[in-house]
Amino acid sequence: MAEVTNELIYEVLKGMQTRLSNIEGGIVEVKTELRAVRGHMNAMQTDIANLYNSVDALGHRVERIERRLELTDTPAS
Questions:
Q1: Residues 70, 75, 76, 77: is their CA dihedral positive or negative?
Q2: Number of C-alpha atoms within 13 angstroms, CB side, residue 48?
Q3: DSSP state of 4
Q4: What is the pLDDT of residues 28-62, one digit of tens each?
Q5: Quick one: CA torsion of 40, 46, 47, 50, rounded to 10 degrees?
Q6: Which of 3, 13, 60, 69 has the least CB density, counted as fewest CB within 10 Å?
Q7: Predicted TM-score of the model (pTM)
Q8: Measured distance CA(46)–CA(56) in Å, rounded
Q9: According to the model, what pLDDT value does residue 34 have?
Q10: What gap in Å lies between CA 66 and CA 73, rounded to an integer?
Q11: How far apart are CA 46 and CA 34, in angstroms?
Q12: Does position 12 have pLDDT exceeding 60, yes or no?
């Protein structure tokens, strides 16, 4: 079996340090992309909320127009 020396351990640790550095860089990239996705998702949620508000306002306007033109069905009682 090969003898374990300080030099061998040092070389292995240097390799691990390089790999960990690469992993850290990858994590930074993933975090940046995740922030961008979150920003887009928040923008989409805001857009959807604005659309719901617009549709709701249009619904109220249609109801008001129907009442003024007396187009609403009277409930049968």
A1: negative
A2: 6
A3: P
A4: 999 999 999 999 999 999 999 999 999 999 999 99
A5: 180
A6: 3
A7: 0.64
A8: 15
A9: 98
A10: 9
A11: 18
A12: yes
47, two tokens:
């857009």
- For residues 68 and 74, the answer to whether their CB atoms sit within 8 Å is no
What is the torsional sign of CA 37, 39, 42, 43? negative
Q: Is the dihedral of CA 32, 37, 40, 45 positive or negative?
A: negative
What is the per-residue DSSP string for 6-74? HHHHHHHHHHHHHHHHHHHHHHHHHHHHHHHHHHHHHHHHHHHHHHHHHHHHHHHHHHHHHHHTT-SPP
Give first-to-last CA distance, the chain, whole Å: 98
| SS3 state at 76 | coil
